[in-house]
Model the fold of this input.
Amino acid sequence: MSELVDLQALTEMADRLVKAALAAGADAADAVSARSVNQVVSVLKGNVEKVTHSENDEFGLRVFVGDRNATISATLGADVKELAARAVTMAKIATPDPFAGLADKLRLTHDFPDLDLLDETPVSSADLVIRGRALEAAAMDVPGVTNITGASAYWARGGAALVTSHGFAGAYETSSHGHSVAAIAGSGTSMERDWDSSGKSHLSDLEDATLVGRRAGERAVRRLNPRQVSTQQATIVYDPRVATSILGALSGAISGSSIARGSSFLKSKLGQRVLSPSIRITDDPLRPRGPGSRPFDGEGLASVALDIISDGVLNCWLLDSATARELGLASNGRAARGSGAPGPGATNMLLHPGEQSPDELIKAIGTGLYVTDFIGHGANLVTGDYSRGASGFWIEDGELAYPVAEITVAGNLADMFQRITPANDIEFRSAFTAPTLAIEGLTIAGR
Done:
């Protein structure tokens, strides 16, 4: 794997794009150049169903001519001079944008912390097959599991470089390893499906395939013979797998883009308490081996950790340079960038744990709904209205009593945020991390 990504070559490509744009008449420019390589092995009933190996090289160029700008992207092999000239021509006829532009030169970083994002452990197709078969076998060994819809294992590696015309040049590499499996329990019209997965930047941190497979099987079996519950208001407990959706809704609602457009239910809430007083939420791009970690943002600013929420108070928006200018603020290094123009986004977002264990939290609730799976994306970030299909387990006498399905959970995010109680279980499985959460007063639409 050590020869798959050449950061120097990526940086040189981005630099050539910027210089070509300036030569074509741009007043300023920045460019990204990226390469990714990944391999996926899919296993079904012990046989290798598919092996996919893909390599992708792409770059993007953003040019500025006065207060107008344009962004263009292409894959490796495109003519750099022609691409730059086309971008400049596009910029000259674009609609003026007084807020667009490169990041403040005085705020560019030239200090790139080592976040340990790259694992160069070699992984062969045979290794992936072994993991895929182990996933399947462990899931099928669970009593009640009748089938597997497939298991997969993968590795990936990528690198990206950013160069600007006002003095920034930086590059970094990442890697990822993972596997997943979906199991089916029951038969006929009484079948239930569930899944489990593990993904890490370093192979040594990956959960054992046997453990992941067994959990997927056990989750599927637990869902057998679900019931419907009557329509009512109740406390909803979010399993950590679905609790991250609360962070997803929050990050969308506090994006600088949403605030600048006035399309967020939190648009007037900066500096106010928007979550329960016990809640702290941080966004940390400097977490070692974090899936959202990066040594600099998509405009060349330093990566810094932020307390987005402290004691329930909303401290800041997620801002890149353009949205910060529009809002009369300063960027907080949250520019995310692919081959297109940058935009604000979260990195590694964490809702910090509370004091009770999940069992203690559920016991204190007494009666309610424990949600393990949602269907659809039912959050309206303009109004805060929230409605999602759900399944999980009914809570009686402080314990999980029986599986439930074909229900809908509804409320309003502004109210829900004020009634969140976190448990103390934290497991870093993705860029968004949350413990078990209890939210009072939601409506369950059932029979």
